[in-house]
Amino acid sequence: MTLTNEKAFHINQLNLYYGNKLALDNIDIDIYQKQVTALIGPSGCGKSTFLRTLNRMNDLISNCHVNGKILYNENDIYSSDSDVIDLRRRIGMVFQKPNPFPMSIYDNVAYGLRCQGVKDKAVLQKAVKKALVDAALYEEVKDRLKESALSLSGGQQQRLCIARAIAMSPDVILMDEPTSALDPIATAKIEDLINDLKKDYTIIIVTHNMQQALRVSDYTAFFLLGEIVEYGLTSELFSHPKNPKTEDYITGRFG
Amino acid sequence: MLDNLLKIKFKNTSRGRITDKISKIVFMSATILSASFIFVIAGIIFIRGVVPFTTDNLGVGRVSLFHFLTGDVWLIGETFASNLYSIGFIILSTLFITLLSLAISFPVGVLTALFIAKIAPKPIAKILRIVIETLASIPSIVFGLFGAGVILKLVYDFSSSIGYQSKGGNSILSVVIVLALMTIPTITTISEVAIRSVDPAIEQGSLALGASKTQTNFKVVLSSAKSGIFTAAILGIGRSLGEATAVSLVAGGRRSGLSFDLLDTTSTLTTIMLEGLKETTGIDYDIRFSVGLVLMVVILLTNLMLNAIKRRVGVVHVKE
Predict the structure, then answer these.
(1) Is A95 close to B319, i.e. CB distance below 8 A?
(2) Which site in A44, A54, A131, B71 is 20 to 30 Å from B305, CA atoms measured?
(3) Which residue of A has its CA nearest to B204?
(4) Do A115 and B212 lie within an 8 Å CB cutoff?
(5) By residue range, what is the domain housing residue B210?
(6) Testing the interface with B: which of A54, A85, A118 to mutate, by most B Cβ within 10 A?
(7) What is the CATH number for B92?
């Protein structure tokens, strides 16, 4: 494992409220480029909420507001001149449940580029093929690109959603429990894929599965009640947790 | 202990079975009752409707089915003659009017639905929903009176301004406007339900890819809701084809000659069934059942066609 100090995100005193309820409490964390960072913690601890602040998906929730700073490549993504559409183009997201569009496999992958105004068929075809190859799905679907994405299995749909995100050539991919709806074999495929993808992308993954965090991540942050209790190299956090609460959680004493 | 539990369980199950049986019988009889009415009505229309073609209509003479379906004269209630009853031009103008009104009401209705479901702030959406539902429940005669009182005058003034002498505004255009006004609420209500039931996860997936809200609404939300939106169009067409009262107040009662001129008078299959209804015997009465039969066939064929298209549209299509 290579250690880099290049930061993708620098988060400083981030607080997030749903109405009056404090959901993220004074988060300070640096997330490193081309590393896999796992966010773990019990349900309702704020890890998904935190993930969604990074591409401003929380903007869609009407009573949600944020203060503090999230610097992405040195730019404050919550500043008034930040372009949320450009941000989401550079920070892709994969959701808990596969959510392919009700279109063909090809159209799903081409969707983001078409929304950016790419019309050249040759360019689209090349980008779609590359994204599907990189998402380890191409061999399975190359003969039926025109079929509905909904005809794929759950695991294939999730890899299609990853391909859809990759097609935009993002810098970062956010994954919100991407394997929680999948069987163990499909899960293993996604985990292998994450290992391949981290060469090119910064990956931040929310997971409930300790083993998964241990298998795929370089860094782990443990969330509890809206705070980060402990953050560090995955190997150290799991073998020598500094905080007794972390130890209790990773050893399965609660959560 | 275990024995006891089993006994209790069995007792409950047998009681449940009887309830199931009774409710099944109740549901089935309700279905049979309503379904049999459909057959009775269709049967009576059929039996009355074939009379003009099978008898000599009390001396007036037998009506030729081919001439009835293709001819372009409809002179009901004036001089009784079997060759004066023909509806070829009326079938065509009915379809033309239905298509034109759908061309207005479908885009307006769907866009209104999109606005209410996705764009309007919640309190405004709530008010709009009430407004649309109220509009949908307004009786057709009220739309007809509005058409006769307001739209006829507007159309008349419009046609005068372009130097065309219309017959008091009674025209295809007036019918199309009245029908569009009547079908917009139907199309809006049903499309809105379809749009609201689109899985928000799909929308979020689109936004997370850097699509704008407008792109998301048009490319993902509408295409996910297309089956429901199509149903809305089918019901809109049904309402247009079946509307008699309101249409008869603004159509002008055309008696002969096919015309697609928007400012010219017209007739539809429903208005000719309604207009000049006096006798309850003889060809003048029976022929309306024949028209009803044709209308039912037209509606049936349209629905079959639309459902076939709907199945095709439901299949994912590739833009390339």
Answers:
(1) no
(2) B71
(3) A57
(4) yes
(5) 87-275
(6) A85
(7) 1.10.3720.10
Query: Alpha-carbon distance A238 to A224, whole Å?
Result: 16
Task: Write out chain A residues lying below 8 Å of B121, CB-based.
Answer: none
Instruction: Give every residue of chain B whose pLDDT is below 50, as ranges.
Output: 316-320
**What is the pLDDT at residue B311?**
82
- The answer to whether B209 contacts A111, with C-beta atoms less than 8 Å apart, is yes
Tell me, what's the pLDDT at B317? 44
Structural domain for A54, as ranges: 7-99+156-250
- For the stretch A134-152, pLDDT in tens is 999 999 999 999 999 999 9
The pLDDT assigned to B7 comes to 57
With respect to residue A73, please indicate whether it lies within any of the assigned structural domains. yes
Q: Name every chain A residue with its beta carbon within 8 A of the beta carbon of B212.
A: 85, 115
Token pair for A253: 């004493």
For residue A171, tell me if it sits in a domain. yes
Q: Are A98 and A180 in contact, with CB atoms under 8 Å apart?
A: no
pLDDT at position B196:
95
Residue A41 lies in a domain: yes
**Token pair recorded at residue B226:** 């297309």
* pLDDT value at residue B2: 56
Q: Are A115 and B211 in contact (CB under 8 A)?
A: yes
Spatial CB neighbours of A118, under 8 Å, sequence gap ≥ 6: A110, A124, A127
Bridge-partner residues for A30, per DSSP? Answer: A10
Query: What is the average pLDDT value for chain A, to the nearest integer?
Result: 92
Q: How many helices (H) and strands (E) does chain A have?
A: 10, 10
Structure token pair of residue B10: 């069995």
Is A112 close to B211, i.e. CB distance below 8 A? yes
A148–B315 CB contact, under 8 Å: yes
Residue A212 lies in a domain: yes
Q: How far apart are CA B299 and CA B125, in angstroms?
A: 34
Domain count, chain B: 1
For residue B19, how many other CB atoms are within 10 A of its CB?
10
Query: Which of B208, B212, B316 shows the shortest C-beta gap to A55?
Result: B208
- Residue B319 has a pLDDT of 40
Please state, in angstroms and rounded to a whole number, the distance separating the CA atoms of residues B202 and A8.
27
Interface contacts (A, B; CB < 8 Å): 83
Answer with the residue of higher pLDDT: A127 or A254. Answer: A127
Please report the DSSP string for A177-197 in residue order. STTTTS-HHHHHHHHHHHHHH
From the list B199, B210, B316, the residue facing A104 with the nearest CB is B316
Q: What's the CATH code of the domain at A36?
A: 3.40.50.300
Distance (Å, rounded) from C-alpha A224 to C-alpha B162?
Answer: 75
Task: Count how many domains chain A has.
Answer: 1
